[in-house]
Write a structure and sequence with these properties.
The protein is of the alpha+beta class. Helices cover about 15% and strands about 40% of the residues. It has one domain (about 5-70, about 105-220): Alpha-Beta Plaits (2-Layer Sandwich), CATH 3.30.70.2660.
Length: about 220
Amino acid sequence: MGYGIRLRVWGDYACFTRPEMKAERVSYDVITPSAARGILESIHWKPAIRWVIDRIHVLKPIQFETIRRNEVEGIISARNVQQAMDGKPITLAQIVTEERQQRATLMLKQVAYVIEAHFEMTDAAGAEDSPEKHYNIFLRRARKGQCFQQPYLGCREFPASFELVEVEEAIHSYAYTDVAEKDLGWMLWDIDFNNEMTPHFFRANMRCGVIEVPRSKGGGEPLL
């Protein structure tokens, strides 16, 4: 295991969408490992490193809220855009009044987590890359609140605030410290982009407010 980091993230709303829900958006109970990795990558990521989520601390009670809003039914396909760029007479406009539909979203509110993670060096690492270098870059950026893109909590309209948890700082204020075990069901672990975007799942058990995230077998699947 490389250098470990701890990052506290929080926000007013979050939606970590369950892929099995097609018609309406329904959030998982807590942040998924893949969403946590996305937050870390928005602060510091290079091809030379790969973030690995070790555990997730749930700091606030799990609360849901339902909203209903107007959305357009689809998006303009990349294929149509490419054909338009090639000079073909393709209509790229969308008529909102014809494609508008109402959809409900079951989302989380008032969320806060501490993400424990480390990174591993990849085959893309060059001679100028070292674990110390990338570790210090992440620490410096996290302490200053810097990011390459605004991190978000499942959906881009739900921005995430973040701050580094220093090594000497204790993690406290659990909402579930007194709950020995809470089964959160099967949860999306990550998507294997090297294998036709194959999704992998794991059984999320929260013990005293902490979810241990399984490691990878090396082939993209979680080690359960």
